[in-house]
Amino acid sequence: MPNNRMRSQLLKIFLQSHPPLLNKLMLLHNLALHHTFIWPRRNKTPSVRFQ
Fold first, then answer.
1. Has this prediction a pTM greater than 0.85?
2. Selection from 37, 30, 36 nearest residue 11 by Cα
3. Which top-level group of life is the source organism from (predicted)?
4. What is the rounded CA–CA span in Å between residue 9 and residue 39?
């Protein structure tokens, strides 16, 4: 859980400095969350699995 919070904070800081990337980043973030929750066993990426 703290890892998730840290990631969202970094995301906010990054988006504040690069506003045009908001849509792409949110799309990627949503896809990652969807992938993690729908196919958790297929995904071998530790940073995504430990959310």
1. no
2. 30
3. Eukaryota
4. 26
In tens, the pLDDT along 4-45 reads 788 888 877 776 776 666 777 777 777 776 655 554 555 555
The residue type at 2 = P
The Cα–Cα gap between 1 and 9 comes to: 13
Total tally of structural domains belonging to the chain:
1
Cα 2 to its chain centre, rounded Å, is 13
Across the chain, which distance is largest between two alpha carbons, in Å?
35
**Could you list the residue range(s) of the whole structural domain that residue 22 is in?**
2-49
Residue 42: both structure tokens together: 């297929």
